[in-house]
Design a protein that fits this description.
alpha+beta; Immunoglobulin-like; nine-stranded antiparallel beta sheet; 192 residues
Length: 192
C-alpha cells in the first residue's frame, strides 16, 4: 500500500469511529421509552387502610390507598375484574363460615357510573349471580375514588349486628382477576 492509500484508510477509520461514537451518544441521550403497565404487571396492593368509627354520627369512615389507581372497568372472559377488593366484617368469630361475617363489601359490585357500593349480608346466599354467593344487599352507599385512594362511609348498624361501641374486626383483600393479591386483618379505630 502506498502512502496516500494508507492515509485514506486511516481517515476512513477515523470518520467511521466518529460516526459510531456520535450514534451511540445520540441513542444514550434519547428519552427513555415509557412502557404502559397492566394490572398483571403490578397487582393491586394495599399501601394504607383504615376504618374509623365516629361516635357522633354513628358512621364508620373507610379509607384505602392502593399502590396504584385500580382498574375496576376491565374484566376477563369470565367477568372477573382486573382489580377488585373485598371487606369481610366479622360479627361473631365463634360462628361457622360464612355466618361469622355480618357484612361483605364487594369491589366486584362497585358501580362506577352511579358511584355506589353495595354492602351484603354474608348469608344465606342470594340467588342473584351478582351476589357472588353472598347474601342479600343490606345497604348501598356512595363512594369516592381519587386516583389510588378509595373512601366511603357506612352506618355502624349497616356493617354489623354485634358491635354497639364501634369496635369490630375486619378482613380486607385485593384481587387480580379473582386471585387474592393482598390480605389484611385489622380492627376498627374508635377515637378516645
Amino acid at each position: 500500500m502506498g502512502g496516500s492509500t494508507k492515509h485514506l484508510a486511516r481517515a476512513a477509520l477515523v470518520i467511521l469511529a466518529v460516526v459510531i461514537a456520535a450514534t451511540q451518544a445520540a441513542s444514550a441521550a434519547a428519552a427513555p421509552r415509557m412502557v404502559q403497565s397492566s394490572a398483571t404487571d403490578h397487582p393491586l396492593q394495599i399501601v394504607f387502610e383504615s376504618a374509623v368509627y365516629d361516635p357522633e354520627t354513628g358512621n364508620v369512615d373507610f379509607t384505602v390507598r392502593f399502590n396504584r389507581g385500580p382498574n375496576f372497568r376491565k374484566v376477563d372472559q369470565y367477568g372477573r375484574r382486573a382489580d377488585s377488593f373485598q371487606y369481610f366484617i366479622v360479627g361473631d368469630d365463634t360462628l361457622p363460615y360464612p355466618q361469622n361475617f355480618d357484612a361483605i363489601i364487594r369491589g366486584d359490585e362497585i358501580q362506577l357510573r352511579s358511584r355506589l357500593l353495595p354492602i351484603r349480608n354474608s348469608a344465606p346466599s342470594d340467588p342473584d349471580p351478582a351476589a357472588g354467593g353472598w347474601g342479600t344487599i343490606r345497604a348501598t352507599i356512595p363512594f369516592q375514588l381519587h386516583g389510588n385512594v378509595l373512601t366511603f362511609s357506612a352506618a355502624l348498624t349497616t356493617l354489623t349486628d354485634h358491635s354497639t361501641d364501634g369496635r369490630f374486626t375486619y378482613i380486607l383483600e385485593t384481587y387480580n382477576f379473582g386471585s387474592v393479591v393482598d390480605h389484611i386483618v385489622n380492627e376498627s379505630v374508635v377515637p378516645s
